[in-house]
Specification:
The chain is an all-alpha fold. It contains twelve helices and two strands.
Amino acid sequence: MTETAMVQTKSRVKTRRRFNWRQQVTAYLFLAPALIIFALVTWYPTLQTVLFSFQNVGLKGSQGWVGVQNYVRMLGNPDFVTAWKNTFGFVSLSIVLGLLVPVALAIMINEMRRLSQVFQMIIYLPALIPEAVALLVWRLIYHPEGGVLNSLLKLGGIPPQLWLQNPDLAKPAMVVIMTWIGAGGSTLIYLSALREIPTEVIEAAELDGFSPWQRIVHIFMPLLTSRIQLMLVLQIIFVAQVFTQPFILTQGGPAKSTTTPVLEIYNAAFVRSDFGLASAWGVSMLVILSVFAVLSVILRKEEVYK
């Protein structure tokens, strides 16, 4: 009987393995069209960009291999340092506004007894407006003559400012726009984390005499730490790829104070038709941002297991 049972068990295991193998093959066959399309849309252009970065490519196509000459030209170009320096400035300013504002808004909405749904909708509305349209409106707001912002400053006796024409003001002015556009989504993410707190914890804190500030410091912020870390990395990736704002508002000026790597890629490819140099810029961005992409995946896994 024992030998018979062992034979039956082995046959069942083999049957399961065959069944699992067939299941896997069937699943991959169903996924194959999507995987092929994904490879054509994503991996093929990436590989082509890497190959172009080692070639002299213009409007007439590839003129031959040039080795690392495009990378030497890129690193020797003063705009390379300027663009990444500006990106670091954008990231630094956006960390201050892009993290503090959504967290503060999420806590405020979470504390509301009424109209919280209305405020959520209002805060998220900027994300629904086409970015090009929103930027044109902001350009009118920042206009040096007759702009809404300068008109308000005049009422307070403050002289008008050249918001987009002054190298010292252009970058902060753009970060305000980035925060206005992206704060809604971040606020909802933080708000969902706050609403996971059991009501018993909040009630116990109130019975212990916790002030609103103590609740924020000892209850809310520890819970939001993992989300803040993840959003920080994602924000760095997003801001490092900024293009639309400087392209529409300043064209990288004044005095290259708002130029970015993506804007330099655009100028190299579509203004000067130097696709080899543009590809070298693209590969450098791919390498740098891949580090932050891997970090975001690690943080997501840590958040899931917490």
